[in-house]
User: Fold these one by one.
Assistant:
Number 1:
Amino acid sequence: MKVDTLDTVNVYGCRVSSGRTVNYCWIIANRLTNQAVIVDPAWELATIVDTLHKNGLQLKAVLVTHHHHDHIHLADSVSALYGIPAFISKSERDFYSLSEHQFFTFYDSEILSLAGLAIRPILTPGHTAGSTCFLIGEALFTGDTVFNEGCGMCVGRGASPDQLFASLHRLKEEISDSIKVYPGHRYLTELGADWGTLKKNNIYLNIKDKDTFINFRMRAESIKNAFVFI
Ligand SMILES: [Fe+2]
């Protein structure tokens, strides 16, 4: 398990998998209190419970970046097990209904005070209609909006490369270079790189023209590497 000690939070990375699908769910703990929130719990409940227990963490909330199964899979179970709320953006819940889940919702940039942390959800639609990145302490949790080497696919209802271009542009405007970035999947390089490094190395963050971005994002051959997780 990966642990990063930042100024105000510790970030615990749980690599969890189901078959060939590998996700990273992130536990973010307030360094002063050991209260914590979890982003995108999936696949391995025992791994998550064990990580919380071994590190003496008190889980206060579940945060979900978007509704895809590999990000939402254990949201209800973890919420029920610890008796804590689970959150997703209002636009994601409304667009996809999600009525089988008991989600609390938030708006763009509405500060969530959880685990003694001021959590800022940044709405970054594109991969899905209400995809969200969470800015917590010195860290940004991006789900499938942006990875170290790429960005989310834009397939299925509510996905939009046009919106994803705008969302990535917004992140470039609003996120400081020193912020550490924790996506939901890993392809090549270590997660937790800083935003300045992603801005330099991630080709999707370097395409200035919207139409060029859309054509590149939607190219057919990009699908073949999208599920080669490590
Ligand atoms: Fe996704």
Number 2:
Amino acid sequence: MKIGVPKEIKNNENRVGMTPAGVAELIKHGHTVAVQHTAGENSGFADEQYVKVGATILPTIEDVYAYADMIVKVKEPIEPEYPLIRKGQLVFTYFHFASDHELTLAMIKSGGVCLAYETVQLPNRALPLLIPMSEVAGRMATLNGAYYLQKTKGGKGKLIGGVPGVKPAKVLVLGGGIVGEAAARTAAGMGADVTITDISLPRLRQLDIETPANIHTLYSNEHNIRQQLHDVDIIIGSVLIPGAKTPFLITRDMLKEMEPGTVLVDVAIDQGGCFETSHPTTHSEPTYMVDGILHYAVANIPGAVPNTSTTALTNATLRYAVALADKGWQQACKDDQALFLGLNVVEGKVTYKAVADAWNLPYEPITL
Ligand SMILES: NC(=O)c1ccc[n+]([C@@H]2O[C@H](COP(=O)([O-])OP(=O)(O)OC[C@H]3O[C@@H](n4cnc5c(N)ncnc54)[C@H](O)[C@@H]3O)[C@@H](O)[C@H]2O)c1
């Protein structure tokens, strides 16, 4: 199969759909890969690295789309890319259709086959192509929390791990999923006193058994959260209720119970946020203050570390990309229910119920 890796054109997106290592694997399977000139540059992968493993470099995005049977990328296509997608062309990327009406209509019109990373789902309900970005975001949440705790950055002026004779900072993690566990482990590794909450008791039991002794578990309810506020230093919001808006676990009135300079990191901001006072921020202006409490709510945290994020993403997507290239999308989706669940829009039809429901479009389930 002919595979194309275009350069991402969405603002501030520095990741790329595939690393040279991933491209090498596809070529080993007998496929040909065209990478757009400088596509990997911002992730630390030069054109020469792709050429070395056998890829062809094409000068423009138009060339890559025209060449490929399957496009592998990172972000959803944006307007200039819509007309480049042709009938029957497979596009394997994050789409997030339910939050973008224009994109949904454009992809229906294109006649392309849109296989969305975010809905590829394993039988245990895990989302294997979202997990790597959550693993990155969780670690970064703690690093940023620790950074903004500095007095010069607006924080309380505490060192997250303390020093001998001085207590470490207190970190409260709301939501003990992939992001929450990564954040808690990173904070614990830096010596912080960590509390992690969840509404799932089995999950709390698992965290209690498997995580270091300086991570304590706490059942998530308003009473328990309020009790933590008077001396907490960093709060990380990492709650997710699939398909629903994130609840506000920290309301505006709760800010008064915290010490000035407390740092709130709202990782769940991409789903609406779990602090009432959160609004999305960017890497160029990541923080703002409300009532003396510092808020960090960057909506694409992994974008700050594109080398790690691209590599982690390719590690997760590659086996699916290889299956799609080896067998074609129909057979690959027939053989693997996880991949089948990734089909969102197929040749003009919305084949994923939540997307059809979101935009009041006909749902046309696909049978292979
Ligand atoms: N900002 C970013 O760049 C970025 C990057 C990756 C992920 N995210 C977001 O981070 C959030 C978490 O992602 P994840 O992969 O860890 O999800 P996850 O499903 O693995 O974990 C979510 C956890 O929240 C728990 N939860 C639900 N309601 C709760 C409540 N009221 N109190 C406490 N816990 C509760 C769930 O039981 C679950 O354990 C999502 O909103 C995701 O979109 C953001």
